[in-house]
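Notebook, p. 212. Picked up where the previous page left off. The plan for this session was modest: take the two constructs that came back from the sequencing core last week, fold each one, and keep the raw output in the notebook itself so nobody has to go hunting through shared drives later. Recording the first one now, exactly as returned: residue sequence, then the structure token string.
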Amino acid sequence: MKKAGILIALLLALTLVPGCVTTKGEGTPAQPVTTLDRIAQSGQLVVGTAGSMPPMNMTTKGGDVIGLEPDMANQMAAAMGVRAVFKTMPFAELLPALEAGKVDMVLSSMTITGKRNMKVAFVGPYFISGKTFLTTEKWAAAAKEPEEVNSPSTKLTALRGSTSQVFVEKVFPKATLLLAKDYGESVAMVLQGKADAMIADYPICLLSVIRNPDHNLISVVPPFTYEPIGIAIQKNDTLLANWLENFLGTMAGSGDLKELQEKWFKGGDWINKLP
């Protein structure tokens, strides 16, 4: 009994010494859960989008998100074996939502810029765009020189938090800038005469002309800028970045990306689905 008591006391003492007792897996650093792991476990690819930038992304009368980018996201989800879920929000809220982990990626006609790239990573580009004017024929004929546009009497509208806002502030700093939460609001300002022109990506300006045939709208071509559009993901997410690079490469090489561009830029049946 005495020997048994000594043995028990010794075992108890050993349990109090740090590092003497290990459990299964102890000493091996836990592997962090990657975005792809989380997507696979949840069965959902959560995509952040403005849902208001046709034909890249838009919301139908029934509330569905459609466009070139949603089609891309659905193909990505299918390749992952999950389903795509779209979270729509004002454009300016997309990157904060990504950084907060509320979405897995942002796929919303977002230009790759140095400032944005300091906070998040980008994969792409998968599309090249550029800034231009949406305005009336009357205003375009009257304002012919840049210095005429760069005046406090000129009212320009742009999407809040976009590169269009940056473009106006840099190129036309004296003009009156009216910021909008989405392109619908911005176009309405031009139609109602509250703004002289909207600054936006060329596809959006062109579509606005098509959708408003009775308002004598025009879009200035060629675009003023070169803007690569990419997929935004959280910084240091190397596995997801690699997956997306391979996916985009396959889309481009197979012709799938070109087919989607032709579907949304040349076909117009989807216009009737919009509010």
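Okay, moving on. Second construct, recorded in the same format:
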Amino acid sequence: MLRFFKYEGLGNDFLLIERAALEGAELSPEQAIALCDRHRGVGGDGVLVLDVDSPRMDVINSDGSVPEMCGNGIRCAALHLARLAGEEALEVSIDTLAGPHSCIVVNRPGAESVAVHMAPPSLSPRDLPLNSKRPWLDHSLQVAGTTVRWSGVSMGNPHAVTFDDLGDARTLIGPALQSDPHFPEGVNVGFVSEHEGSSMRLDVFERGAGWTEACGTGACAAAVAAVETGRAQRDQPLSIHLPGGPLLVTVGAPGDSVLMQGPARFVFQGEVER
């Protein structure tokens, strides 16, 4: 039997499996797909494989693909480490494919939250990757028959963010941009609306998961795009309202990490056949 722990961050839900439970084996994409199936499996947006002894988180999306990083997932992983340690407060660094991330956990019943120092963002086309000679900041591109202004941001994984009011057209534009040849490794597509002052609404069509309740790296990318296009100020906490709830994101000086703060919650644990 294989033990798992179910966590969620603003409705973005994961099955967390401790690497030791795999007994030296690797979790295959097919196993992850089966586990994430909401009708025939446990159900989730992805699987987090966590090395507890030397903290490292690897992510497999519900379609079997492997992202570099997951902002909501790393908050869940950090909370799991705090729960294992029996600590109400914990500072821990968790390694990922996008590098190490410093996490500060508050583990109090009903008030669990995690602050994460995310990797410094990049606008470089090489880092996304993006097939362009120049960074995209409000760059116009026709997608699914609509001309949209996009900003490209890497948070260790690729994001394209728009502040254009697109209404229901988003349902076509999100999947279309995700498969656009400008993004050879795909892209997470963020749609900002109701932007006023330090508050904005964000919906994300995630690479490998589709529309989700929340996307932590997407919230960070939207905040970076807002700052870089003059819609927000550096060092000003921005409240990013996702379908599952709000995240607080602060963009510092160029080259600094982005601070993301938000909840994480343990739901239940169980066992499944290997």
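Notes on construct two before I forget. The helical segments are 29-36, 71-85, 170-178, 216-228.
Flagging for discussion at group meeting.
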